[in-house]
Amino acid sequence: MSTDFASQNRLAQERASIWLTEAGLRPTRQRLTLAALLMGDGRNRHVTAESLFAAASDSGEKVSLATVYNTLRAFCSAGLLNEITVDASRSYFDTRIDDHPHYFWEDSQSLTDAPADQLEIMRLPEPPEGCEVARVDVVIRLRRKA
pTM, whole model, 2 decimals? Predict the structure, then answer.
């Protein structure tokens, strides 16, 4: 899977710092590095922890895979990312946090946005007593025709 990450320039670092500070997260060196890679150019991305770890390594940053996972989870808790689980062993982290559906491309193991204006959910089941619906994730799995 190839993901085009933002470059690690001064503007990317500034955007990352603002992004973290506005969410109430302390901008540590590792958070700044990962945030700059994710959002430094203002583009939305779907990333795995492994792809972000590789991008950080490629940029010369020393960060462990465990730190990447912990940082991504902190970003999710702060409302900066959404975690999209496509199967029991793979999650993607989406920088676009509004409600929208996704395509999961089985051949390339990649996740992309699907057209939200073409999706209609007519009714959801009633949640169990004492619960409320927090979010509905729609992942449409695609494979190329043979």
Answer: 0.87
